[in-house]
Amino acid sequence: MRPLQGLRVLDLATLFAGPLAATLLGDFGADVVKVEHPRRPDPSRGHGPAKDGVGLWWKLLGRNKRTMTLDLSTPGGRTTLLRLAAGADVIVENFRPGTLEKWDLGWDELSAANPRLVLARVTGFGQFGPYARRPGFGTLAEAMSGFAAVTGEPDGPPTLPPFGLADSVAGLTTAYAVLTALAARDRTGRGQVVDMAIIEPILTVLGPQPLWYDQVGHVQPRTGNRSTNNAPRNTYRTADGGWVAVSTSAQSIAERVMRLVGRPELTAEPWFTTGAGRAAHADVLDEAVGAWIGCRTRAEVVEAFEKAEAAVAPVQDVVDVMADPQYTALGTITTVPDPELGPLRMQNVLFRLSETPGAIRWAGRPHGADTDEILTGIGLTTAEIDALRTAGAV
Description:
Keywords: Transferase
Protein name: CoA transferase
GO molecular function, one term: transferase activity
Structural class: alpha/beta
Number of strands: 13
Radius of gyration: 25 Å
Mean pLDDT: 97
Family: Belongs to the CoA-transferase III family.
Shape: elongated
Distance between the termini: 33 Å
Helix content: 25-40%
Largest sheet: 6 strands, parallel
């Protein structure tokens, strides 16, 4: 028994934040139906590398979802969605504000069809405000939130992440928001709207920047890999050309690191007793740590740090990750059989539950693969489905 078994989710969203939220629900047992336009599939099917013409990103993002096609802008598509909504618990959508309303599929119509429905609306800037109708992507949220402003070297430009950071954080948050709304429904018997703006969750994970500015006027600068809160904290090159990351957020760890690298006298300096004091002398500490690490291989450095109970990690690329013994022990990368491409190795479900674990039942399925089965499941006859197909609604 999966913890979300019996939960029915319609995923109307495209690209990343909304679909990722639906994926996370599906990983723990929800019956997720991915609804795509008949002639314009989710663009994630074409993002990034492909094998034999099949997009690999979709195999991850589309896992545990049944797929169907439906043109919501047509009369038949509208009617069919309302029938699907009547039996659903959750709809996830990311159309620009006003789009569903233009099709007479707004909250009033959906909640009338199913008063217990939770509608998760994921957009760049939220459902209201001066930017609400702008096109919104995670990159804009990474810039607007302050993330890019604090990322990169002090004398370099603001830096954007080379992956969908803001989208992913918003996807995680949307899944949490949906479950929160469902918990409220259990008490009230009524569904509600989740308004998720991608610009907001990433601002939360940036920490207390607004509080710092409000109370003491502090604007966090770009510091590269260094921290203004502690040192040594950086990446260091090893003798064999590898890299390691060192963190000393705790005073005891900082002291162990300096003893390990042969500079115990630095721990007696008055400034060494606080994280901010150490950060102010990062040049001295980085030179000491970097010189010691630069004379040893990455494996030797990691082994020595572990023996000294000091915090270190190798800087790994995906090749290292796939072979890492800790990830292997946790089962973080799992193998999923796929009828199109054969065995696929991908990230496992996000966390482990001792009694009701999640599971990947299948990878992303072909466009519209389950349309007839899903429509038959809500009572449509073969003739009705053929009529929808003739009209271009599916």
